[in-house]
Amino acid sequence: MGKLGNMGGVGIRFRFHATDLCFVNSHLAAHTEEVERRNQDYTDICSRMTFTQYERSCSEALPMFGSKRIKDHDCVFWLGDLNYRLNDLDCQEVKDLLAENSLASLQEYDQFQQQRHQRKVFVGYEEGAITFKPTYKYDPGTNNWDTSEKSRPPAWTDRVLWKGENIQQSVYRSHEKLLVSDHKPVSAVFKAGVKVIDRVKRQRIKEDIMKKLDMLENDFLPQVMVDNTDVIYDNVRFIEPTTRSLAIANTGQVPVTFEFIKKPGEPSYARPWLTAEPSSGFIMPGEKADVVMEIYVDKKTAGALNSGQDKLYDILVLHLMGGKDIFITVSGSYTKSCFGCSIEALVHLTVPITELSPGEIVSLENGEREKLPVDKTDGKKEPYPVPKELWFLCDVMTSLGLSHENLFLQPGLRSEILLIRDWLDTGLPIDRPNVSIHSAAEALLIFLESLREPVVPYSMYSRCLECSGNYLQCKQVASQLPTHHKHVFDYLTGNII
User: Fold this and answer.
1) Per residue, what are the HEC states of 109-141?
2) Cis ω before 255 (30° cut-off from 0)
3) What is the pLDDT of residue 117?
């Protein structure tokens, strides 16, 4: 905020969707003869007020470079005591015109309108029609014009202006019933249109532009042909890798070095559930390289896919050293699983998760259970103490015996773990699958590790470490776990551990 003697201005800015808005409140120099000082105050505020701290970035934010000034915003609303008076009229003349309700005639002497007409201040700003009496000067506590010795002539010192497109003013008024000041406050009501980015359309346009730019690359650069730039995966399942093969053929006259490169602002060349092997290589003219592209959804990535925070969609950038980039779209459908769900979601689910649509699973994870059919959740009943899937797993282990050596150290069979996954997700077969105790134990560990929020929430980790050496404090921390998490903790410690 720039300081201008005992006068000045203060401003705030914010972004709503994709529109930058700025609000400025100012108090300019007083006295009828100080027109130039008021003009200079306005100029100083415009030149010295800058905004250098911005809101956090988001998917709808436009790029911002350097600092912003008032003029750099899409919509500006400027209000305050601008202190412009009436020229060439004494106090009695002004009062006589007011008694005749000759507001239009009186406004011809308005310094503010004269200065704007001469383009000295507020160029490009608009002001609504003034249909109210001057807002200054009154005897405080009354609606009487100034009766002091100075007897200052009435004037419209308090104004509201705006600048920008798609702004309509519906109300511009003064509030004569407010008597606490020698001014009458003014207010205005606006209807402002804002720009909203269609993210789906923007993404589609972005992809089209990237592919068109690719086509415009110099034909004399290293050339390759990729047999498929739109790789589609069907029915990707938890901890079950799915692969596709991609052939890259060197159709040019020079050797080609290729590499899948990171996109700006991303930590890796692909999403965490996607890998390409090899991710880089060298191809002689007339030869080709086969790249195996694998989608593998594990305990780290399943939660975001279940909750709708992520989806099986990515664009890989295949970079040719000294040549152009090729964009490969990868997409697929993920069969959601109880592995990767949250405890809060599972305790309310009364049917196998495969009986829910993808949208219903997202609603369940977001706590919007009212959007789900009553026969698929607990409805108005109490939720399960622990997820039924956890109970099924522990029941299998208990029936097989918990006294085996190296119970949680010896790995199970991958095929049996997948049988357990399908059994928990579909409820089939009705009888439990025929698996070993070690496969059931590993499935339990995978189930717990894939929870969106661990049994002991992340927020309590530091507290747990601090109390690890004190039994009573550990019990206290355990008692403070969220309700369903505590039930799971008690169930596991009482039946398995």
Assistant:
1) CEHHHHHHHCCCCCCCCECCCCCCCCCECECCC
2) no
3) 96
